[in-house]
Amino acid sequence: MRESRLLVALLLVSLTAAARAQPGRGTLPGQGPAPSPAAEAPARNADARPPAPAADNYKQTQHTGKFSGQTVAYTATAGTLVLKSAAGKPRANVFFVAYTKDGVPPGSRPIAFAYNGGPGSASVFVHMGLFGPKRVQMGDDGFQPAPPYELVDNEDSILDVSDVVIIDAVSTGWSRMVEGEDGKNFHGVRQDIEAFSDFIRQYLMKFNRMASPKYLMGESYGTVRSVGVGADLQARHGIELNGIVLVSSVIDFSTLSEAPGNELNYASFLPTYTADAWYHKRLGPELQGQELKKLLDESRKFVWGEYMTALIKGSRLTAAERKDMAAKVARFTGLSPAFVEEANLRVSPGRFRKELLRDKRLMVGRLDGRYTGLDRDAAGENQEFDPSNTALQGAYSAIFLDYAKNELKWESELPYPTSANVRPWQYEEGRYLNLVDNLRTAMARNPYLHVMVVNGYYDMATPFAGTEYTFDHVGYEKTYADRISLTYYEGGHMMYTRPNMLKAVHGDIAAFVKRTQGGK
Q1: For residue 378, how many other CB atoms are within 10 A of its CB?
Q2: In this structure, which topology does domain 17-254+422-516 adopt according to CATH?
Q3: Contact by Cβ (8 Å): 136, 142
């Protein structure tokens, strides 16, 4: 919302202090897969042979493409900028690829900074799936293609309306710390925000883009980053944004965390269970025959009404109330009433993914519930892998490395980890990571800052109902709601892997940029 074998960096579902201590629970899907075995090893893959902190180093190539029917001549700039401290000391070489339209004054065109998340995910997924001028050709309806993989023109890149700079976080992709730097200076919520903020300021200065309308476009953990960077650019550098696009958003981790006493988590996921059950035709005839949007409205009404009330009552539920609620939850999830009651009405995402199609000995995907896979067994709730994650591994990494070498003319002896080991990731104090007030403050200080939130109905990494809850609580004056727009797509965490959804996402983002670049 990715390496060695390219996983789609997973979302960090465990955000409580206790959950953070559990092995394998510290990665949030930022475009993101769970870390591969290579990423679990010491961070030698990410940090081996750091390049000398010399000067900025990049290559520029000229291209022409057609985007939404508009022919655009553009320059691709691929390479590294030296990230420096306030005192001018080199800290890291940050890899980026910028696509800028030729023949226009630098400050007259919008510029968007885009990235994945993880934490620990390189930005190859939004690059080669959403924003870049080329994309990976996926199979029918966005499913896994058969190798060898194919690179095709991305007519739905936003280059028709904005320039794009795609950035790899330090320790991912080809971004590396310099000799003598410590990972703790980059691998943390605040450290990561400040590094991206400093890079963006340096880029704007170096390439004369301070006068441009400015946007941040992050996915998954990249949405945490976007909210934090937006506030940091404003507070430390005096740089104001026109807009922030949050793809598969999570900025309040209480909507995800299975911490004792946190009932919000179970409510946040249930409408996504409804969507996934509907897709796999596991609902009863009355619900299965409904159009998806109408069905989800009914599921939301149930969740934030009867269901949340029952969860809050806890042990005060009578046996009859418990049995009745189990039947209602089963109705909206495709699970059996007995299973729901055994789970104390609180079905975790892992249990749902294993249970929904257990009779077929199939599990469903986390990043995209449309995907199914064969686990080592059909028992319990543990999953060997996420079928919606592994479906993207080989295609994106192989295609990007070939594209970088042959079209961008950029080569490096360094490995390109799509999912790097950046743990331990340093979280801020508090039970749940929550940047909602950071966003509210930035919007209060800048009355022209708009936010677009992109949601996939089948995304079980950043469930759309939890996102809705979050943005219902950004601020209570009308000005906040007026400047926040939520869009929905029949896809998962990376809804743009479906060609028709990619076109829809592009149309909505392009309209957002056009509407907001003048501060409207």
Answers
A1: 15
A2: Rossmann fold (3.40.50)
A3: no
